[in-house]
Design a protein that fits this description.
Helix content: over 70%
Strand content: under 5%
Low-confidence stretches: 303-307
Distance between the termini: 49 Å
Structural class: mainly alpha
Radius of gyration: 26 Å
Number of strands: 0
Number of helices: 15
Shape: flat
Length: about 300
Amino acid sequence: MSAPVHSRSASAAAGRIGRIVTMLVVAAFFLLPILGFVSLIFRSEEGLNSGEAGFLGLGGMSWDNLVYSWNELSKFGPGEGGVFQRWLLNSVAVAVGGTLLAVVAAIPAGYAFARLRFRFRKTFLFVTLLAMVMPNTVLVIPIFLEVNAIGAIGQLWPVATIMGFYPFGVYLAYIHFMTTMPHELVEAARIDGLGEIKTFLQIGVPLAKQAIALVAFFSFVANWINFFLPLALLTSSQENKLISIGIQELIGASPMFNATVAAGLDVKLYLPQLALATVVSMLPLLAMFLGAQRFLIKGQTVGAVKG
């Protein structure tokens, strides 16, 4: 005999409530530390030391503290300061430049691997996949020697150029064209008299909007957080550093982490200023994510079905 309807409804409601409570607990587990960290940028060093700001320090938050921390952060550096803003601009220039190069190289290469047949195609594809899984740290020393040989250590353009080498973007474009561009469409274009370049530009590129967005997003994120390459090529120039290694310099110059170095500095950065620098450095990534979110959601199914 089946259970009463109201019993099944009560059981389903209890299960739904249990799932909601579980998800809220998990969300709080991740969100509360983030909320506490963000609240640091609105607090003062004195308030942190007193420990009398209530839950997560929310009671000690004020806009004046944020303005003060930004002014102190802006004063950091030689002369009148401003080196933090310079690092941000350098990172934007290098990340955007590397992303543009990655898109321009990856989309045609992915199309060629997916829809053209040429000698050593499988070999080149295998080399691309091998380069994709190779750790970046392995290549830092050879790249440093090559850049040093042309006397470009400390300059931004070699870093942006090297960041344009993005094998994962080639693989993404390859999978996209394999799954969204039928082979019959390419054959029809050839029958109509279109050459390979026109077929790519008139048919391939309009179908590659999603792939372009995905390659641009992942390339920009990889460029922005890249640490070892800027560390090897740009540490000789204070003005040409990127924010990824600049944050490390700010931490190393803080009395909290290195009292000896900080003792000789006119501007001393404490936890609120370091938290503010970290949050500001994440804003371009957040903006990029929000802009590409629609394509990222659609991209979850890339490669699931072959057209």
